Amino acid sequence: MAWLNGKTVHLAGVHPAIEAALKAAGAMISRTQEANIFIHIAAAPEHVPAHKQSHEAWRQTLDSGLDQRFLQANEFAKHCRDRGAGGVVLFVGAPEQSAGVDQAAAAGALGNLTKTLGVEWARDGIRVNSILTHRADETVGNLASYLVSDYAAYVNGAVMGVDDHD
Amino acid sequence: MAVPSHHIVSEPPAFEAPPYPPDIFSGQTVLVSGGGSGMGLAMAKAFAQGGAKVAVMGRSLERAEAGAAEIAALGAAVHAMNADVRDPAAVAAAFDEAERALGPVSLLANNAGANFPVLAENISINAWNAVTRIAIDGTFMCSTEMVRRCIARGEGGAIVNNSAQYIWTGFPGDAHSAAAKTAQATMTKAMARDWKPWSIRVNAIAAGFFPHASSTNGDAPEAIAPLQNMIPAGRTGRIREFGWLSALTCTPLFGGMTGQVIVQDGGESLRRSLMMPDFVPPRERTAGPWGWQ
Fold first, then answer.
1. N or C, which terminus of chain A has less Cβ within 10 Å?
2. How far is B249 from chain A, CA to nearest CA, in Å?
3. B256, A135: Cβ pair inside 8 Å?
4. C-alpha angle B159/A139/A23, rounded to 5°?
5. Does the annotation count B20 as an active-site position?
6. Helical segments of chain A, H only
7. Dihedral sign, CA of B105, B111, B114, B119?
8. Catalytic residue among B95, B166, B210, B244
9. What pTM, to 2 d.p., does this model score?
10. Which residue of B lies nearest to A86 if distances are taken between CA atoms?
11. DSSP state of B1
């Protein structure tokens, strides 16, 4: 399927299945903000019980799982508006309750941020969605490619997983 | 009010360019309940575009046949039949009939539903039973009927349920459907758990507003125009994009996905402002329980 022919994806983070699916769908991968699509992938933290988490480790999960996502999405959206073009943002990360309190906070906040930005930027032609899963298979790659394609033009503010056991 | 011209409104590709190859469902049969018109017909056409054989089930044979004719025009093998999804014997007979005409059914779209604006106190017991049982019992009957047959054949399968974007918020003025559509979403997750060992996947679309010929106000441009600007996406949904996402969840492309409820509503259910118009109880809305203009 040529879902993403002619599109450039700014891919932040590492997810081989998503990268492979994006390329198979015809997308160009870029590491800069000059793109039609911004995908931010955050690695899942280890599960450390809340009372044993250091402030440093806590901050690291919140920084990569929430703060950096917000800041970089904001920057991407500004580029889109400056160009007078729409765009797509997709956040990918681990499910809310799949690790410790740090991940619960980051993913919970991210979910409602997704819903908020999806509406706030809707009339800029910018859609915002999230996939929360541990999985790294072809389905995740295809789901990500679908969500950033024009076929998902009416999917905005959606937070989904892949399997309830993920 | 029209969407201001400086706003950007995204559109999906044309109907002739579905998001999967024309043989992705090759050799498989899908049964679509309520498939003769509206959203069910859109699902049926989307499966047909992927090469599925399509059993169109409706309460009215005439309507099922009308829908089947549109699907046949796409080049798909199709069979129209009628059944009441609340009647287990009728559902079993319909699966028998579909299998005789088209072969074993391994794909199912639970779309049958009824919905109309009405105040809760004015919902008759008949209306309550009809709306809730067509969606809830119907989804249970059709899904379990297909899955028993798949398990007996040793084959996997996929189910997609047509739920609604108002399942998380309630829908004042539409109590029967608010209850029914949420049950379909929660059932989606429970059935997905139960049937994972048999490689039978179950997902749902929490659909927003996709006008079609049998919508309350139809799909004429003058009926849709006043609705475009109320939706964050700047438009109502195009029925093909709902059909495509529904079918896509049943393809091998999404072969690892199960138990998901995907909202597809252009952000409609997420609209919120700190300041909103005064609250008017559905009973006192001048344009009726849905506030439909």
1. C
2. 9
3. yes
4. 140
5. no
6. 16-24, 55-62, 68-83, 101-120, 138-147
7. positive
8. B166
9. 0.96
10. B8
11. -
Name the minimum distance, in Å, from the CA of A84 to any CA of chain B: 9
Over residues B101-156, the pLDDT tens digits come to: 999 999 999 999 998 889 999 999 999 999 999 999 999 999 999 999 999 999 99
The β-bridge partners of B163 are: B206
Least confident of B59-63, B92-96, B148-152, B222-226: B222-226
CATH architecture of A8-162: 3-Layer(aba) Sandwich (3.40)
* Strand ranges across the sheet with A8-12: A28-30, A8-12, A37-41, A87-93, A126-132, A159-160
d(CA A115, CA B110): 27
Rg, chain B, Cα only: 19
Interatomic CA distance for residues A82 and B217, integer angstroms: 39
What is the value of ipTM here, to two decimals?
0.93
* Contacts B246 to A, Cβ<8 Å: none
Enumerate the domain spans of chain A.
Answer: 8-162
Q: Kindly state the DSSP code that residue A75 receives in the 8-state scheme.
A: H
B→A contacts (Cβ < 8 Å), by residue, are: 3-4, 7-13, 19-21, 189, 192-193, 196, 208, 232-234, 237-238, 241-242, 244-245, 248, 253-267, 270-272
For chain B, say whether A2 makes contact (Cβ under 8 Å): no
Quote the CA–CA distance of A112 and B140 in Å, as a whole number: 32
Which residues, at least 6 apart from B148, have a Cβ–Cβ distance to it below 8 Å?
Answer: none
What element of type H or E holds B163? Answer: strand B157-164
